[in-house]
Write a structure and sequence with these properties.
The protein is globular, with a radius of gyration of 22 Å. About 50% of the residues lie in helices and about 15% in strands. The protein has two domains: about 180 residues, no CATH class; about 190 residues, Spore Coat Polysaccharide Biosynthesis Protein SpsA, Chain A (Alpha-Beta Complex), CATH 3.90.550.10. The chain has about 375 residues and is an alpha/beta fold. It starts with a helix and ends with a strand. The relative contact order is 0.15. Strands 3-2-1-4-7-6-8-5 form an eight-stranded mixed sheet, sandwiched between helices. Strands 9-10-11 form a three-stranded antiparallel sheet. The mean pLDDT is about 90. Helix 2 links the parallel strand 1 and strand 2.
């Protein structure tokens, strides 16, 4: 029986080893995912699409984000920009976009209020105005390329018994240290974890930045009002469709999340909200997510065990594996070379991530869009 420090050191080695195996499996999932075929039906088969964009305020580079949807190379679609506050500062800007875009863009100002989740209330107001049976729900801070809609619809049409087609997002442009930490979190943690979950159990979820589904499927799971009191309505929509036997698809087309000059504090608040939402929706998966903090465990090992050749080798191996994962994901996702200048922040991000994971178990309050909520069982929430 060893001493207490020896037992802790042994546990840290085991956790680092498990994290290394997870990292290698993540690499395999990432490489395999980006080898998937792309689907492109003939132009005559593309159905019309209603794009629903719930808006609140003005996001960084807001005009460019919306313009990227207006200029899609797609036969027929409409964009609905929704506000459930007539005094919102974005209403006049959205109206200017609508005037310059003809009938393709419409601004919908309404007063729908259903539950604790304001985004769902906004979407309900938009859904009433949507002309077409095929819907694309997309956040206001998302930017896409000109072929995005064709590729998403192509994957939707190529799938039998389809529930939703949802998309991973990336942050290839970091304008501040907080934005760089957020980008590294997406690259090193979020994208790999989603692809691991896809490989192990399938796509049992939806991702809010981009979800394509039909009105018919949405009605089968109770319609949008059924999600009015959930924080992660995107996860719930995908999960309920999966439970009904539909096949959800994770698109190979990554979209860009434009976050601007995010502060470090805003990054931490966002990650805490994400972590507590994950814990509420998938408690066992979130607990197992702890092994992904491999570098933090490896760093603690030489502190407790001493800076021996073995402990330093463990630390170096963990850092190299983490860097390899980030480099592979960034390359596959098409990040610009200048993004790599932030790679030195990876150890800092990993230590912060472990701290957030641990703190996540000590409370159930989150902040979202300036409002405070208390998370309840299964992802339900109430405003505080």
């Amino acid at each position: 029986m060893g001493t207490f420090p020896e037992v802790i050191a042994a546990i840290l080695v085991i956790l680092t080893l498990l994290g290394g195996l997870y990292c290698l499996f993540s690499l395999w999932c990432v490489v395999g995912f980006f080898r998937l075929p792309e689907y492109s039906p003939k132009d005559s088969l593309y159905p019309p699409v209603s794009i629903l964009k719930p808006m609140r305020g003005v996001d960084p580079e807001w005009l460019d984000n919306i313009t990227s949807f207006v200029t899609q190379e797609y036969p027929e679609y409409e964009i609905l920009l929704g506000f459930n506050d007539p005094c919102d500062e974005g209403v006049h800007l959205a109206s200017d976009i609508a005037k310059s875009s003809g009938s393709r863009v419409r601004v919908v100002v309404h007063s729908t209020h259903l539950g604790a989740n304001p985004k769902v209330s906004n979407l309900c107001g938009l859904l009433r105005e949507a002309r077409y049976p095929l819907l694309l729900i997309s956040d206001s801070d998302i930017r896409v390329n000109r072929t995005y809609l064709k590729e998403i619809v192509g994957e939707y049409l190529a799938t039998e018994n389809v529930g939703i087609v949802t998309s991973l997002s990336k942050i290839p442009s970091a304008l501040s240290m907080g934005a760089a930490l957020e980008s590294l979190t997406y690259t090193a943690d979020f994208i790999p974890s989603v692809l691991v979950a896809r490989r192990l159990e399938g796509v049992t979820f939806g991702l809010g930045p981009s979800m394509m589904l039909s009105k018919e499927r949405l009605q089968e799971i109770g319609g949008l009002p059924a999600f009015a009191d959930y924080l992660a309505e995107d996860y719930q929509i995908g999960n309920r469709l999966w439970e009904k036997g539909y096949r959800n698809i994770l698109s190979t087309h990554l979209i860009e999340d434009v976050i601007g000059r995010m502060s470090i504090l805003k990054h931490l608040v966002h990650q805490m909200r994400w972590a507590r939402t994950y814990r509420a929706c998938r408690p066992r998966g979130f607990f197992g997510y702890g092994i992904t903090h491999m570098f933090a465990f490896a760093l603690l090992f030489p502190i407790i065990h001493g800076p021996t050749p073995f402990s330093l080798s463990v630390l170096a191996s963990a850092f190299i594996l983490r860097c390899c994962l980030v480099l592979v994901v960034s390359r596959k996702a098409g990040y610009p070379t200048r993004w790599l200048r932030w790679l030195w922040l990876l150890p800092v991000k990993d230590l912060l991530s472990l701290g957030i994971w641990l703190l996540c178990f000590l409370g159930s309050h989150v902040t979202w869009r300036g409002f405070h909520y208390k998370l309840l069982k299964d992802g339900l929430m109430k405003k505080v």
